[in-house]
Amino acid sequence: MGMVAGLIGEREAEARTMKVIMADRYGPLEGLAGREIQRPDVGEGEVLVRVRAAGLNIADVFGVRGSPFPIRLASGLTRPKYGVPGHDLAGVVEAVGAGVTGFKPGDEVFGEGRGTCAEYAVADPDRLALRPAGTTPEHAAAMVMAGLAALHGLRDAARLQAGQKVLINGASGGVGSFAVQIAKAMGAEVTGVTSTANAELVRSLGADHVIDYHREDFTRSAARYDVILDNVENRSLSDVRRVLAPRGVLVLNSGTGASGLSLLVRLVWPIVRSLVSQQKMRRFLSTPARADLEALARLAEEGKLRSAIDRAYLLAETADALRHVATGHARGKVVVAI
Ligand SMILES: NC(=O)c1ccc[n+]([C@@H]2O[C@H](COP(=O)([O-])OP(=O)(O)OC[C@H]3O[C@@H](n4cnc5c(N)ncnc54)[C@H](OP(=O)(O)O)[C@@H]3O)[C@@H](O)[C@H]2O)c1
User: Fold this and answer.
1) Would you state the pLDDT for residue 259?
2) Given ligand 1 and candidates 58, 156, 286, 325, which is best to mutate, with the most ligand atoms within 8 Å of its CB?
3) Neighbouring residues of 165: CB distance < 8 A, sequence distance ≥ 6
4) Quick one: 155 and 182 in the same domain?
5) 255 C-alpha vs ligand 1 centroid, how far in Å?
6) I need a labelling partner for 255 at 20 to 30 A (CA). Which of 9, 95, 138, 282 fits?
7) What local confidence, expressed as pLDDT, does residue 260 receive?
8) CA 254 – ligand 1 centroid, Å
9) 105 falls within a domain
10) Pseudo-torsion of CA 24, 29, 34, 36, nearest 10°?
11) In a domain, 138, yes or no
């Protein structure tokens, strides 16, 4: 009897564990390893999701490295508070905490969770929505951070209008591949800047014009754009402003390559310059909200938005997947299937 009870207890304990990829310290991606840890408890106002796919972003690489330093303000100053990478997820609701309305166990969802390179992750229900019909978990997970950044950059920061000319620098990456499609869905004329190898992908996403940066310098073009979404920020602000219409908006969406004084200039100068110029330069911080996830889901269901997936990795290959993201040359999105 005692032995049977012992075995049942062991099985129950096993059932409450989960496979994750994690690191206890900040450092290189090589420090990530597979582990079996306790499943997170679902707290009041939280949802526990059985993760089926995690979408990866450069923010996840920064989170593992603990660099650039400001990332630690959210993830833990000296060591990661929860060393499992991943924010984007798609999966099935396993349990809901007290006070959660709108989701129930069994719902297929996508959105943001904590540590999604795992079999289970806790999520804030305000940052989840129902997975769009006709999408796989991989495609839905891929959409979250990058799709929302594209939506927030074009709709909110740029206030893009139908009929406007928009240029997207870095059009084949995570944010860019969604931005091309969202700008088209909003009725804009879209020019995408990308490398030779990715020109066809950008065209297939609906871009009206593609500039191959190996052959042509977009800042020397005769065209003037009402909106420029710059996901790369590899050119000086004055170079980029040359092709911005007199009342155009330049949305700066990277800055990660700059450091020290040049980073300060890229952060402060756009604000100062926008005070005295008709041309505006804006930065934005994209945070997930259910209504915006639903907006992406609607576009996906209408056939206007799809995730361009570069490659799906297995959970055990998460470090390789993050290394690919870190190159800054993924074609569309990198995901982990769990
Ligand atoms: N504001 C926010 O809240 C927010 C949210 C999410 C992301 N972001 C930021 O958005 C940026 C882009 O993220 P992502 O996920 O799209 O990155 P990504 O997937 O790595 O894409 C990078 C893109 O840059 C292109 N690229 C690289 N070198 C280039 C060059 N010399 N000229 C033109 N294009 C070049 C790549 O194209 P090729 O491979 O063809 O070179 C690729 O399309 C990151 O800096 C990220 O931190 C901001």
Assistant:
1) 75
2) 58
3) 188, 189, 191, 223, 224, 225, 226, 227, 245
4) yes
5) 10
6) 138
7) 78
8) 7
9) yes
10) 30
11) no
